[in-house]
Known about the structure:
Strand 1 (2-5) and strand 2 form a beta hairpin. The chain has helices at 19-32, 41-57, 64-72, 74-97, 102-116, 119-122; strands spanning 2-5, 8-11. The chain is mainly alpha-helical. It has a domain at 36-100: Helix Hairpins, CATH 1.10.287.1080. Strands 1-2 form a two-stranded antiparallel sheet. Helix 1 (19-32) crosses helix 4 and helix 2 packs antiparallel against helix 4 (74-97).
Amino acid sequence: MLVVTRAGIQWMSDASTNLDSLSLAVRRFCEERDWDQFHGPKDLAVGIVTEAAELLERFRFLSDEDCLRSLDNPESRERIENEVADVLFFVLRLSDRFNIDLAAAFERKMAKNAERYPVDKARGSNRKYSEL
């Protein structure tokens, strides 16, 4: 991953990057542009949904096989990665602006999911927890 800052270009990868550094990069980017005024909670939630819809558009009307081919095609994959990054941008921005600890929230949610989807009932099933 590449982050462009006033100090120059900084390369990042999933293995060496934490959420805090990503949030800081998003915060700096937005502060430099004076975007706080446009980033209320509703606006950022709308941004998440809009970008997620753009990601979905990359797969709409494609078979599973076509989706996999799309991910194998470098140009198509880049467009998909851009949309995933846009979703992440808005998630990071929302969490940073409104003091949501993403790691803690994720850990709590995973614990709830583990209770709702016990392995012995959920393994190999895509049914909702209320239907298990």
